[in-house]
UniProtKB/TrEMBL annotation:
The keyword Cell division does not apply. It comes from the Eukaryota. This is Uncharacterized protein. Gene3D superfamilies: YVTN repeat-like/Quinoprotein amine dehydrogenase. WD repeats lie at residues 226-256, 269-300, 315-345. Keywords: WD repeat. Transmembrane segments: none annotated. It comes from Centaurea solstitialis. InterPro entries: JINGUBANG-like, WD40/YVTN_repeat-like_dom_sf, WD40_repeat_dom_sf, WD40_rpt. It holds the Pfam family WD40.
Length: 422
């Protein structure tokens, strides 16, 4: 899933007087009479149903909670291509700038100027041990450190010069990437499209070069490289047990597990009929969601009584490709090329419902990120979830989903019943 480039190497940091975000109540833009299809791969059945999507209807469905929504809008210099959250800060990349925004006040704190470099678009961001890792269009990964005075300092570029120098001596460290062209196996040779933290010691990266690489976060060394797919890899996620999932333009999702020494292929999930663009895992890693060009969200779970990953259902409603997914507790949010965001919820009986369809986006929704906000005190087990997205033309939307039931530990049993749809 190739995106337009926007990020380069950091050259300077500028501080701004935080602008006041515009505040508006979100109107209920849910489309009435939406037709959803859920298909069970195991039982061979398909159910189509129509739901009158009003707030009253959603609240009346047993196990589904009524959403209390409010939005804030903050305007930055240009349209935002990537969003990430860490330590109560929102990182919003736009053109040659990375805007750092305080989540609590939704105010712009700092703008990192990356003009003048050739690193190209940032495709992904992850965080580990106080470091910020960014994946770039120029085939490299860069590592940043937030200093005490609020500046972001680049401390490394992966693979490091030292690592490349040591490995360049031996011919066996080179691989053929194109005809008559070789590269070190520790190097990506196309855009790095995704990053994921596997453990506090390991990070993985995927690329349009079809490779999955494993990196040690302590010394920034590449320890493993796997030819994972037959076409560009668009997304990667990792579960708490170290299992890695990769999604590719070859229409496949692959599952990787750690052996005694190296990672190996556990399973290939090949039910999609077009390029797989995005992946998301539920809280305990027992359910995988995938979105692709056909506009449907596939739901994968463990086979009853076994460990095999199988397709358990399909969520339909978007009219174009699914570009991003984010999960929190029993909620799933999906962003699409149809310029809408859908909020799905799974009830106690394992039934999905599309609670809201949010429109007003001026461009395809390529990035969604969520952060747990205020939690209630005392006997009130509710919380607020903040969801950030780019509306277009430099406007960042913060959607506050209030009065959510505070998530308990999500067990595998909760996510395993057959998927049904109202």
């Amino acid at each position: 899933m190739k995106l337009q480039p926007w990020l380069s190497i950091c050259s300077s940091t500028t501080h701004h007087q935080p602008p006041s975000p515009s505040i508006s109540k979100l109107s209920d833009t849910t489309t009435n009479n939406i037709s959803h299809t859920v298909t069970s791969a195991g039982n061979g059945w398909e159910q189509v149903c129509t739901i009158s999507q009003t707030a009253a209807t959603a609240a009346a469905i047993t196990g589904f909670q009524k959403l209390s929504l409010e939005t804030l809008t903050l305007t930055v210099s240009d349209h935002v291509n990537f969003l990430a959250v860490h330590n109560r800060l929102l990182y919003a990349a736009a053109g040659n700038l990375i805007h750092v925004i305080d989540i609590a006040s939704f105010a712009l704190l700092t703008t990192v100027n990356v003009a003048g470099s050739s690193s190209g678009s940032v495709k992904s961001v992850t965080f580990s041990n106080g470091n910020i890792f960014t994946a770039h269009q120029d085939n490299k990964i860069r590592v940043w450190k937030l200093t005490e005075n609020g500046h972001h300092k680049r401390i490394a570029t992966l693979p490091t010069f030292k690592d490349r120098l040591i490995r360049s001596v031996s011919p066996k460290n080179y691989v053929h990437v194109r005809r008559h062209r070789k590269k070190l196996w520790i190097e990506h040779h196309d855009a790095v499209s995704g990053l994921a933290l596997v453990t506090d010691r390991l990070m993985c990266s995927v690329s349009w070069d079809k490779y999955l690489k494993i990196w040690r976060t302590s010394d920034f060394r590449c320890v493993e490289s796997i030819k994972a797919h037959d076409d560009a890899i668009n997304a990667v996620v990792a579960a708490a047990d170290g299992t890695i999932y990769t999604a590719s333009a070859d229409r496949r999702i692959k599952v990787w597990g750690k052996g005694l020494k190296k990672y190996g292929l556990i399973a290939t999930l090949d039910k999609h009929t077009s390029a797989v663009n995005t992946l998301a895992l539920n809280d305990d890693g027992s359910v995988l969601f995938s979105g692709s060009g056909e506009g449907s969200i596939f739901v994968w779970g463990k086979e009853h009584g076994g460990n095999r990953t199988v397709l358990t259902g399909t969520l339909s409603g978007h009219s174009k490709a699914i570009l991003c997914l984010v999960t929190f507790s029993d909620l799933l949010l999906s962003g699409s090329a149809d310029r809408t965001v859908r909020i799905w919820q799974r009830g106690r009986e394992g039934k999905f419902c599309c609670l809201k369809v949010l429109d007003g986006y001026k461009r395809p929704v390529r990035s969604l990120v969520a952060d747990l906000g205020e939690t209630a005190s005392g006997s009130d087990p509710t919380c607020t979830l903040r969801v950030f997205s780019d509306i277009g033309d430099g406007d960042i939307r913060m959607l506050s989903i209030k009065d959510l039931n505070y998530p308990n530990s999500m067990s595998t049993h909760y996510w395993n019943p057959p998927l049904l749809m109202w």
